Amino acid sequence: MDKERKLLIAGNWKMNKTVAEALDLVRGLKRELANVKEIDLVVCPPYTALSDVSREILDSNIRLGAQNMSENNVGAFTGEIAGVMLKEFSVRYVILGHSERRQYQKESDELVSEKARAAHSMSIKPIVCVGETLEQRESGITEEIVGGQIKGSLAGLTAEQMDETVIAYEPVWAIGTGKTATAEQAQEMHAFIRKTIAGMFDDQIAKRVRIQYGGSVKPANARELMSQPDIDGALVGGASLEVRNFSDIVKNSI
Fold first, then answer.
1. Residue 183 to residue 84: CA distance in whole angstroms
2. For 106-142, how does the pLDDT look when each residue is reduced to its tens digit (9 = 90+)?
3. Which residues are catalytic?
4. 116: closest CA among 151, 165, 149, 67?
5. Is residue 232 a contact partner of residue 193, using CB atoms and an 8 Å limit?
6. Around Cβ 58, how many Cβ atoms within 10 Å?
7. Number of compact structural domains in the chain
8. Which of 119, 122, 149, 157 is nearest to 133 (CA)?
9. Angle formed by the axes of helices 109-121 and 142-153, to 10°?
């Protein structure tokens, strides 16, 4: 699939996999995806498996991501993980502002932007998540909601930092529900996000930024989604927990 931006497909394992299970999964992915060069591949295990998975993928084409990080680099923040700690495991990417954290941990756009800047200070690329709920979509305010999240979550980033930032559009109503935005719906929102970034920065930066789609991505719908002009990869949840499913999503996207 010929695109000006290289696809980035990342697996968000969420709160799944013991260390032993994580190693089983990543060994299977290494075997199945060893020859993939056309797509950037990332796995985001839970914190407890970062060290072992990091060692396991050291000489592979798979990069390591984390599922969250603190906006602070050190201090009395019980239960938090700092970017400097993630760097010890060669973490290259970090998911920020996932809808589950926005919902359960009440994370705001302002906090996500602080975290994004903290990630950049450690040379970790943030994957900033945005997306609307079903109620918001049905109320016709999708662009207002997603546009606000983009502007708030990317506030304060320099042009250079924006170049190293990934956006993940994840309609909340499609996460883990089996419902997927149609390829047309997804493309429409990705184009809107790119236009919003162009307004905040400039056309050249907007053209370079990778925007992933997330929300019940499966082997069956991967090809159609990834073929859209403004969709530059996928942030995969449930389907990233099985070697076959994740590998097929990747292979179907080439």
1. 38
2. 999 999 999 999 999 999 999 999 999 999 999 999 9
3. 98, 170
4. 165
5. no
6. 10
7. 1
8. 149
9. 40
Does residue 81 lie in a domain region? yes
**Per residue in 71-106, pLDDT tens?**
999 999 999 999 999 999 999 999 999 999 999 999
What is the reported pTM?
0.97
Residue 226 in domain: yes
Query: Which three-class secondary structure state does DSSP give residue 117?
Result: helix
Q: What residues contact 14, with CB distance under 8 A and at least 6 apart? A: 46, 67, 100, 237
Give CA–CA dist 225/217, Å, rounded: 9
Q: Which domain, by its residues, includes 199? A: 7-253
CA distance 177 to 52: 31
User: Is residue 2 included in any domain, yes or no?
Assistant: no
**Residue 129 half-sphere exposure toward CB, CA atoms < 13 A:** 28
CATH number of the domain at 61, please.
3.20.20.70
Quick one: tokens of 206? 């907007």
DSSP letter string, 77-105: -TT---HHHHHTTTEEEEEES-HHHHHHS
Where helices occur in the chain by DSSP H, the ranges are 19-33, 50-56, 83-87, 99-104, 109-121, 134-138, 142-153, 159-163, 183-200, 203-208, 219-226, 243-253
